[in-house]
Specification:
Keywords: Activator, Cytoplasm, DNA-binding, Manganese, Metal-binding, Repressor, Transcription, Transcription regulation. It comes from Pontibacillus halophilus JSM 076056 = DSM 19796. Homodimer. By secondary structure, this protein is mainly alpha-helical. It is about 75% helix and about 5% strand. The protein has seven helices and two strands, in the order αααββαααα. The chain has helices spanning about 5-20, 25-30, 35-50, 65-85, 90-100, 105-120, 125-145; strands spanning about 50-55, 60. Helix 2 (about 25-30) crosses helix 3 (about 35-50) and helix 6 packs across helix 7 (about 125-145).
Length: about 140
């Protein structure tokens, strides 16, 4: 099982390959805001753990295992963003919140969150009902001040 740091790299590599068709050390470093030397070390570790194949100066390719994990990690991230949008979290906080919680949830929890997102998406009136509860609670909080 990959560590949270490894997950961040696999997720980013997967997204870069999906978007650009390739992922270079410099692209990964820029996306993750780390030094290229840190990327090289992690890429070598991911190669040893068979998430990708890496050849110095030639680039890298995700293995079947790496693609499967990468796809699941991107799904987890997007699902958590969806949930936070549905429940009304300010959009300026969503990315940081997802980054803060995504590594701390079990896959069972992620699957249940997927069920919850589906529940809200299947009937928009459910989201409207949630908004009414939020408005009521906010009004009550303001009255307490």
């Amino acid at each position: 099982m990959p560590t949270p740091s490894m997950e961040d790299y696999i997720e980013q590599i997967y997204m870069l390959i999906e978007d650009k068709g390739y992922a270079r050390v410099s692209d990964i470093a820029e996306a993750l805001h780390v030094h290229p030397s840190s990327v090289t070390k992690m890429v070598q570790k991911l190669d040893r753990d068979q998430y990708l194949n890496y050849e110095k100066y030639r680039g890298l390719v995700l293995t079947g295992k790496g693609k499967k994990v990468g796809k699941r990690l991107v799904y987890r991230h997007e699902l958590l963003e969806q949930l936070l949008q549905i429940i009304g979290v300010d959009s300026s906080n969503i990315y940081e919140d997802v980054e803060g919680i995504e590594h701390h949830l079990s896959w069972n929890s992620i699957d249940r969150i997927g069920d919850l997102v589906q529940f809200f998406e299947e009937d928009p009136s459910r989201v409207e009902g949630l908004r009414k509860i939020q408005e009521k609670n906010e009004a009550e909080e303001q009255n307490e001040d």
